[in-house]
Amino acid sequence: MKFNNPIISGFHPDPSICRVNEDYYLVTSSFEYFPGIPIFHSRDLLHWNQIGHCITEANALQLKQGHPNALGLYAPTIRYHKGIFYVICTNVALGEKDDGNFIVWTKDPTKDWSKPIFLDCPGIDPSLFFDEDGAVYYSGTHEQIYLCELDLQNGTLLSPKRNIWSGSGANNPEGPHIYKRNGYYYLLIAEGGTELGHMVTIARSKHIYGPYESCPRNPILTNRGTEYPIKAVGHADIFEDQNGHWWAVCLGIRTISYPFRHNLGRETMLIPMIWDEDGWPRFEEGHLKEEIDTNQLPISQFHQSPQIREWSWVDKFQKEGLNYSWNFIYNPDKSLWQITEKGLSLKGNADTLSHAGSIAWLGCRQQHHNCVVRTKVTFGAQNDNEEAGLCIYLNNLHHYEIALTKRRGQTTLIVRRQIGSLWRIENEVKVDRESIILRIEASKERYLLQYERDGEVITIGSGETNYLTTEVGGIFTGNYFGLYASGNGKPSDTEAFFHWFEYQGRE
């Protein structure tokens, strides 16, 4: 039976997974986007449904503004213990409010996550391990991998922090997870940095504090120096399914050009694993393939439910809440958006898409290299500075947009591109209507900025995908399609109504 990676496409890096009987729950990093820490559910490891987020209250945790793609919620770990789901994560805020490592918990992963409990533990990439004797351990990254015992009730430390492994010799040892099997404690980490040199390494010890013996085959999983289409493979979490088979989830990227660049962000991958005769984990060839053939998938119903590679969804903005696919940038400003009888209402503030702050913007991940998004917007700009439209967005310095505005008193469609500090309006088209369907059509090479008129699709601008890639303008996230409104230096007097949004993806 064959399946294709990624299993969760688009910007979903640093996956962590736990199993509860025949149900699997997975979380990923979310960085500056809110709600934070998306959580997914599956019963066959291939078909994943997002069931919510772990950080949903706007005042629960403050995301630091002004450092796009770089800060926010890093590398969560999810674990299940005695009826409770725990997620431990880092909020990177450079020493400002709510900076540091924290835990949230719930008995129902779809709702009621606790408020964050912050811990006196430095660094990033925290993980939890529940030992057989009842002790709970925190492992994290602060120059090296370190360990301490933790009181989960109040977040206090029960032992000093001790460095336990510096990795196999590569740079940036991080992302630790501890497992216990056949009397050994196994310490799985990432090394090499989260770029093309990324890799997974492992060590083991009879005692949880070490000393740890490095696997003689390290790295046990990497795609560095190979011709496989998935690159930058690393940051893994391993687990056993209900049938006794072992797997790993990890991150990887799908590149669009050479030199290698990627625009969808780091994505969630799946690979089967075995334990060799010496008690070390082993992956086939030590590399991750895009297509994997295995008979170990846990649910036999998979035969009647093939992996979906093309899909679409429509949001008519008729519910009080938002679809789980939507995100804000940083903590949302409730005064800038609402769901109305006409659809999603956005009212721009003085800030533009170039501002690294809370703007009137709502976005969903680009999850396919080849896709089309469409939205119908009604916007009767009263002033020349007001605009509302549709964008493809990497960060505040790298984005393309098509928008309705008023130019010299005339309702006008504009196409603007920003690449770093360079930006300009590249096209203007006068229109005789305030309601219009806007489109962005994506391929591996270009984004086409379009509108529809009387059933005809009209392209009025385009931009290369290469300029909206991590290697050119980003750091840790991927591209979003965004609905937005702006007053361009002044608060807007006019609401923009987005009546529906449609995403059509294909591989």
What would you note in describing this structure?
- This protein has one helix spanning 470-473; strands at 2-4, 16-20, 23-27, 33-34, 36-42, 49-55, 72-81, 84-92, 100-106, 117-118, 124-130, 136-142, 144-149, 162-165, 174-181, 184-191, 199-205, 213-214, 230-240, 246-254, 267-275, 281-282, 291-293, 311-315, 328-329, 337-340, 343-346, 360-365, 370-378, 387-395, 398-407, 410-419, 422-430, 435-442, 446-453, 456-464, 480-486, 496-506.
- With 507 residues, the chain is an all-beta fold.
- The strands form nine sheets. Strands 24, 26, 27, 29, 34, 35, 36 and 38 form an eight-stranded antiparallel sheet that branches. Strands 28-37-30-31-32-33 form a six-stranded antiparallel sheet, with no helix packed on it.
- A hairpin with a 5-residue loop joins strand 19 (230-240) and strand 20.
Shape: globular
Task: Quote the distance from N terminus to C terminus.
Answer: 19 Å
- Helical fraction equals under 10%
What's the gyration radius in Å?
23 Å
What fraction of the residues are assigned to beta strands by DSSP?
A: over 45%
Question: How many beta-strand elements?
Answer: 38
Task: Kindly name the structural category.
Answer: mainly beta
Q: Quickly count the domains.
A: 2
Q: At the fourth CATH level, what is the homologous superfamily of the largest domain? A: Glycosyl hydrolase domain, family 43
CATH topology of the largest domain: Tachylectin-2, Chain A
Mean pLDDT: 95
CATH architecture of the largest domain: 5 Propeller
Quick rundown:
With 507 residues, the chain is an all-beta fold. 1% of the residues lie in helices and 50% in strands. It has one helix at 470-473, and strands at 2-4, 16-20, 23-27, 33-34, 36-42, 49-55, 72-81, 84-92, 100-106, 117-118, 124-130, 136-142, 144-149, 162-165, 174-181, 184-191, 199-205, 213-214, 230-240, 246-254, 267-275, 281-282, 291-293, 311-315, 328-329, 337-340, 343-346, 360-365, 370-378, 387-395, 398-407, 410-419, 422-430, 435-442, 446-453, 456-464, 480-486, 496-506.
